[in-house]
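User: For a benchmark we're assembling, each entry needs the component sequences followed by a predicted structure for the full assembly. Here are entry 17's components. Please fill in the structure.
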Amino acid sequence: MKPRSATVRIAAGQGFWGDWLEAPYRQVTGGPVDYLMMDYLAEVTMSILQKQKSRDPSLGYAKDFIPLMERILPIVAERRIKITANAGGVNPRGCAQAVAEVARRLRLKGKLRIGVVTGDDLLGRLDGLLARGHELRNLDTNRRLADVRDRVVSANAYLGAWPVVDALRRDADVVVTGRVTDTGLTLAPMIHAFGWRPDAWDLLAAGTVAGHTIECGAQCSGGNCLVDWERIPDLANVGYPIVEAAPDGTFEITKHPGTGGRISVAGVTEQLVYEMGNPAEYITPDCIADFTTIRLEQHGKDRVRVSGVRGRPATDKLKVSMGYFYGYKAVGTLVYAWPDAYQKAQAADRILRQRLADLGLKFESVLTEFVGADATHGPLARASAPLDQLPEVQLRIGVRSPDRAAVDRFTREIAPLILNGPPSVTGFAGGRPKPEEIVAYWPALLDKGMVEPCVEVVDV
Amino acid sequence: MTKADRKRSVPLLELAHARSGDKGDTANVGLIALKPEYYPILVQHVTAARVARHFKGMISGPVERYELPNLHALNFLLHGALDGGGTISLKTDAQGKVFSTALLRLELELPK
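Assistant: Structure for entry 17:
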């Protein structure tokens, strides 16, 4: 019998929807890989996609995924590279259909199988769940969902790795999912390749740590890395990370030869603590990973070895992410030049606020920042900056309100300041700011038994 | 000799690096020792209370701290840091991306 390959190589191609378009292509052409993993979904992406789908039922997925597939499908089909991607958004079937059409155009008919993972979308089931006593309280504020039920625009349970594993076992080459966890897209190929059991908690935790390490793409291979940042080589040509996983749960993080960036213990550590809560309890649908057990060591140039990961049994809940309509906001900016740039911007802010008050406009919040002085580090920056000598300052003022008319009127109060406010002002070429609808995030928990993942595999 | 003479001020920037992100209205800052031998200094001096004082006026909730001795790192959760967070926030740094370097502005008073 032919032995299974000792390791499996999983390449990260997208860390979010909008990430570098060249990365997936370079990952499948730059050297050997077995899987290409692409994460498209941030917390609020689902509500944006739900809105697109409500306008056109054939939409609701990451549209960029389709031209990307057109570019790389011939390569991945030839090299037998499999793809896991949560690009399906709120319409995984529509996304799979679009991929299938592309594949047929590329004459890959009969050569490609597409897996589709659904069952995460709970929008149509919310009232039933509430009626059966599932309160879906906000994890951060403990409010009941009933308070905002009529404003909910999207509701998706986070599915884990297992439905993706199911699709891979049924020989899917491309697995398109809805709201599957970022980590599940990396863990699933390992479970599939190594035959890990559902209660092998340490192994599942190791695969989850691997997923967390590469889910933000180049953020673990030299991008956004603070340590020694000026000497990280050739970021223009940055190599996205690759997990080289072994059946015992150890793995190495590396990248293709000849690419830029850097894989170091310091850089990988930065990514491990990114968006971290309690490090001993990294909870996913698949397991609880304990990040305080991770051991890292440099194992040659651009190669970090990860071992020692311990895990615990998964909980009986799934996280549900919902989007609900919250209100409106707008942000306006003007740039003031030396001399007294900061003082002029401050004066303009006072004048604008007085005008808003005189108009009787009500806002939930009005926030002023002075970009160049305090927008990123607030009072900590003001305490040390030479505020009298700044060459220029951008006044950035934002408002938020349930009342669209108030926000709209605010957007008309910025431009007049150019001629009727403090001097040496510029930077208004972009025109009047646009009021934006706010769809806010509502995290909740739901009993696992209430969610039934669905896996289909179709030939192209 | 006064007490001040026996102390020296060391910028945290010289002892650690950091990365930050968001979860709702909470910013997290992972603070990582630049050398393993600096980790005990971070544990002793960069307490949750000290960090809460540092960010006074910038966050509306409490500060929690977790230890990762295996990575020579501390993880801080800064609650109420992001003006509501995510899409609600009006801040430039709505996702808490630069709280990392804001923490590194901290000056530690260490024994000489």
